[in-house]
Amino acid sequence: MKWRHLFIILTAANNLVLYLTRNCLYIAIVSMVDMKDQSRDNTENVECGTTKRNGTEHILLSKTSFHWSLLEVDLILGAYFYAYTALQIPAGFVSVLLSEKHVLNICNVIHALITCFIPFSTTYGSNSLILLRFLMGVAGAFIFPANAALVKSLCLKNEVTISINLMVVFQGIGSLITPVITGYLCSREDFGGWRSSFYVCGTMHLSYATIYIFISNTKLFNDILLKNECSTTSDGSKLKSLKLLFDWKVYAYSYSQFASANPICFILLKLPQYYSSILNVPIFQNGLINSFPMIVYTLAPFISSIFITAMISRKIISPRLLYSIVYTFSMTIALLLFSVFTKFIKCNIIVGMTIFCLALFCCLASHAIVFSIVAKHSKYVSLSTGISNSIGNCAGFIVPIYANIFTENDIHNRENWHNVFFTTGFIGFSGILTLNLMLWFGKHNPYLF
């Protein structure tokens, strides 16, 4: 292995620790908040062997510290994405204008320190936690494009595709180990319970950020960076690419990415609450169960990208028809799983885990299609991916909003959750229509086929 390859791997691994600190809250929130107090309906509703309190079903998962409302919980979950979504495009330009290495290192440290500070901030109420998650989103918005730019600068031209996919793999690995680590720490009150999950994850991120600062400032690293920068071009710096910001067709394509991201964000953000409130899964098992979809999260982008590349390179089918078929088929399967098959979960955790894993795989395959359209067939990759990623991540705060609307009266009511699943499916269906209309009927396509 050449030194350049090692540096590419170490740089891409920044995504692992980024997703470790970004996602640990999604499991910890179940342990932090007393979800049994969220039921306003006092009618009897026996679900999966729970016990009754004042006529409402509940189960105590662990020692909880807060009695926040569902609205507060969903604002906490979505706060990260407000900043992360809004700053994707500006962050892309900053990483071009400034040194991506310095932007990455500074924001990595900030992201890690904020994570460690979260347990202390909760003593001042939910608003302080919402603010910290928003600030984490600001740092995260700069980390991702800076990391991608740095990986590209370390690569030769024929290594770019594999290296960018390596970032996605580390992203999946981070999402895979986070539920396990967080679930275990939250279940151990002798270690500090949910507070320890933020300390441990934040410390791991800070440790790696410190090591990477040292590595990225070595002479060998900088020599390779300077040597390879000339072999890759940053098309986002071209001023004429700004016209994409005012082309409505770009946003239409990006909406289809948002549609496929809705089920993904539900699985990442709300699935732990579903498991705890409906299936009564204890916190450690909750973390373990939520790690299985993350295996899919790691493998699906690679499998779909290999399939797409093979089909196009062998000219078996035209790219336009391939994108239409794969996106439509994958999203249709995902929508059926969410809208229909979730009714068969009942109290069976294995059935539920299987349905959500299959749905996640289909949605990620659809996601890969939109990414191929935007990245492979665009003149201005940096800006077009920034726009699509910005719109796609809107799902991160929209999913908690409509989930709260439907589960506000009773989070332990199975029918309320079915309404959430149906809404997720309806948004996905609108993405199928949008993408196919743009592929087949959109004139003056902003992307080159």
Could you describe the 3D structure shown?
The protein has 17 helices and 2 strands. By secondary structure, it is mainly alpha-helical. A two-stranded antiparallel sheet has the order 1-2. Helix 10 crosses helix 16 (about 395-405) and helix 16 (about 395-405) runs antiparallel to helix 17 (about 415-440).
Task: Reconstruct the topology from this structure.
Blueprint: H1 3-12, H2 14-32, E1 51-53, E2 56-58, H3 70-86, H4 88-97, H5 100-121, H6 126-154, H7 160-187, H8 194-216, H9 219-229, H10 248-269, H11 271-277, H12 283-313, H13 319-339, H14 349-376, H15 381-392, H16 395-407, H17 414-441
Helix pairs in contact: 1-6, 1-7, 2-5, 2-6, 2-7, 2-8, 3-6, 3-16, 4-6, 4-15, 5-6, 5-8, 6-9, 7-8, 7-12, 10-14, 10-15, 10-16, 10-17, 11-12, 12-14, 13-14, 13-17, 14-15, 16-17
Level of helix content?
Answer: over 70%
> Which descriptor suits the 3D outline?
globular
Number of helices: 17
Strands in their spatial order, largest beta sheet: 1-2
% residues in beta strands: under 5%
Rounded mean pLDDT score: 77
Give me the Rg, rounded. 22 Å
Give a quick precis of the structure.
Helices cover 74% and strands 1% of the residues. It has 449 residues and is mainly α.
What structural keywords apply?
2 strands, two-stranded antiparallel sheet, 449 residues, mainly alpha
